[in-house]
Amino acid sequence: MTIRRGGGPREERGAEAGQQPPRDGTSVRRPHVAARRPGRAGTVTAYDMARQRQRSGHGGLLRVGIFLAVSAVVVLLLLGTVLRPLTREVVVGLADANPRALALPFVADFVREDLGEALTAPASADPSEAEFTVAAGESASGIAGRLVDDGLLRDSRAFLLIAIERDLASSLEAGTFLLRRNLTPDQLVGRLLEARDPSITIQFRTGLRLEQMTAYLQARPPEIAMLQLEAADFLDLVRDPPAALLDDYPWLDLPKGATLEGYLAAGAYRILPDATADELVRKMLDRFAEQLGGERLAAARQDGRTLHDVVTLASLVERETPVDTERPLVAGVYQNRVTREMLLNADPTVIWGVDLLALEELGLARWPEYSFWNVPEEPLASIEFPAAIAGYQTYQVRGMIPGPICTPTVTSIEAAIAPDTAKRYLYFVAIPGGEGTHDFSRTYEEHLAKLREYGYIR
Q: Residue 93's pLDDT is what?
């Protein structure tokens, strides 16, 4: 019997199938099986190999896809956990080199994380005001850098990030803005890039007394309608300055109980609507010291005089004449009279006292209605003052008045520092129609003659 290669004896196959081979040599009928391509029994054909490769190819692609997906997840997890600090450092460095990258969400997220509280916290707890100027064509990056230099911002990226998120990085408008040092980065962006400068301007003209300034604040004209500070708070502060304020201005050297009359410089003051009386007063004192300068301050203290003495005399000069060339002469008249222990007979000092008494009766609410510095109808020499202000009745009390009656200009202060006493003038009279000019005299007889000449007496 032939034994086929790779196969076994028929009997063995039959036995394996649980069948007994017939003994008479007849063949056993097998069940029908599907035909396949001819080939040797037990061999692997090309067809089988192709089918196997096809099945293996689909499974391989699936396995590769799963591997890549798992790898990506692992990388992302590493970037977000173990390698996140390194990734953040790289991304933050990219943003530092190219601020425009902050527009990318993932970059903004890393920078926001790196900034921490610098993104929301102010650079300082100091609420004081500071001016900041935006130049025409200046970039948001340039603005942010200067804000850091000026101590108004901790980190320039905070400003840029917020500006980009709010789509304001290109909304730049030139101008000078009044800012508080304790603004958050978000508030700085709003003020500078949205061009919202809420400041208001208070204008005090020259020669005003404290009560006139207060009346202006009380009146709340349209230009300062948004001002929140109370006029009464301003008045209380300047009439009775606290030690904390005076300690910051040692050059004042005020006598005990003196007010700040005479030391609050005139001019325009930009302040924020929520500015306090203390902030406004400090601005005025700062400007007074700036205008006066160190040399004048030193000169005012020569010859045994104090700054208060000089400012007091200067306030008299300020109220007496608007003509600069006459100021040293007027100062000389009053200084000569003090030296000779004469009555000053200074009209402005008595008018000052009359106004003060009238204002006290009127009440602060009605001060804006009051007309200041008008000459009373009754003779000035006959007006009586209470003891508290008796020193301002210079037709009755000798010597220099206790303190200033207004804020003098620098030219009046210069005249008081160096009064022209050499001409020995003791009197002067206003020339009618002379646009504020005066005629000066050395003797009373000469003065009387001029009073008759100009029609003051017969």
A: 54
Q: What are the tens digits of pLDDT across the range 399-419? A: 999 999 999 999 999 999 999
pLDDT in tens, 252-264: 989 999 999 999 9
Which of 292, 309, 212, 335 is closest to 254 using CA atoms? Answer: 309
The alpha-carbon radius of gyration of the chain (Å, integer) is 48
Q: Parallel, antiparallel, or unpaired for β 129-134 and 175-180?
A: antiparallel
Tokens matching residue 88: 């953040």
- The residue type of 232 is A
Residue numbers in the chain where pLDDT is lower than 50: 1-41, 74, 83
CB 397 within 8 A of CB 387: no
Q: How many helices (H) and strands (E) are present in the chain, helices listed first?
A: 16, 6
Token pair for 134: 């935006």
Nearest of 157, 109, 151 to residue 132 by alpha carbon: 151
The three-state secondary structure class of 178 is strand
pLDDT at 177: 87
- In 142-215, where do the E strands start and end? 175-180, 200-204
Rounded CA-CA distance 421/331 in Å is 8
Whether the CB-CB separation of 156 and 95 falls below 8 Å is answered with no
pTM of the model: 0.71
Bridging pattern class, strands 200-204 and 267-271: antiparallel
Give residue 21's pLDDT. 47
Long-range contacts at 165-173 (CB < 8 A, ≥ 24 apart): 165/108, 166/193, 168/140, 168/193, 168/194, 169/140, 169/193, 170/140, 171/195, 172/134, 172/137, 172/138, 172/139, 172/140, 172/143, 173/134
Residue at token pair 């510095």: 373
- Residue 449 CA: distances (Å) to CA of 145, 326, 334: 71, 21, 20
Task: Choose among 398, 355, 390, 361: nearest CA to 375.
Answer: 355
Q: How many CB atoms lie within 10 A of CB 397?
A: 15
